[in-house]
Amino acid sequence: MTDSELFGRPVIGVSLSNRELTALSVAEGRIGEPVRTAFDTEGDPLGQIVRLVNSVRENGVDAECVCIAVPGLVNRTTRTIAHSTDFPYFVDVDLKSELSRAVGVPVAVENDANAAGFAEYRLGAGQSSKQMFYIFLGDGVGGAFIFDGQIWNGTSGFAGEFGSVAIDAEGTRLESVASSDGIIARTVERMFQDSTSDLSRYGEDDMTVAGLVEAALNGDDLAIMMLERTGVHIGTVLSSVINLLNVDRVVIGGKIVEAGDAFLEPIRNRAEALSFGPSFGDVQIVAGTLGESAAALGAALLVSRK
After folding, report:
1. 71 with 95, same domain?
2. pTM score over 0.70
């Protein structure tokens, strides 16, 4: 694919989380440097997005369109957000129209996992894949299917909700154990039983996924065990995706994948144990390569080509 096909027009992609907003431009075959700002949960969310977009424009980007990647369910028919735990004030609001009026150009809205997955498919670890599944592990747990270059949305746009899949007979959802908060809560509970771990230096409110990853890379047994247990849960659910859809690539994004094989191998091993052998033989399970900018980049790519 040529630059002109991939970067069809100057646009800005924005990704939202309850911690940080990220924006970047795609123009003239070039990807701009990401601009990040902390998200003020007490402030006006719409105003914060507009200010971020304008800050990118001040760098000389005459954007023809803006795409917002939101952690939530985007209804493909109404183009509204049907559900968002992190941004409930955007639910059933005509976000496209309100933002378009504020920034003066057309605005598109996309699910953040779909956007990040599309970026990985085009420019990251998903390149050369034909049938890809993307998993995002962060404040929430999301997923995206990309088949033959197209995001598969399902009937209304809600396909790929990987974190909502139950992991046991009691109905515990994957997101409750594999999201950042879920991993931290389980680690803190265990940490008080193991004072020899490097993690014991953290207070109950100071533990982070980044700290867990750092400890695991330094050989901390507790940190490695928590990554392994999380990987088993993810691999259990992932095996169903492999069995049902016979994808050729699974790309996993999020801060936690920086732990490398200490995290990925338990996922692969569990998925292999529960998958139909020939289907597992077709799939590669790899870490994403685009980092924290994946969703903003994917949002820009999605509108740049239209």
Report:
1. yes
2. yes
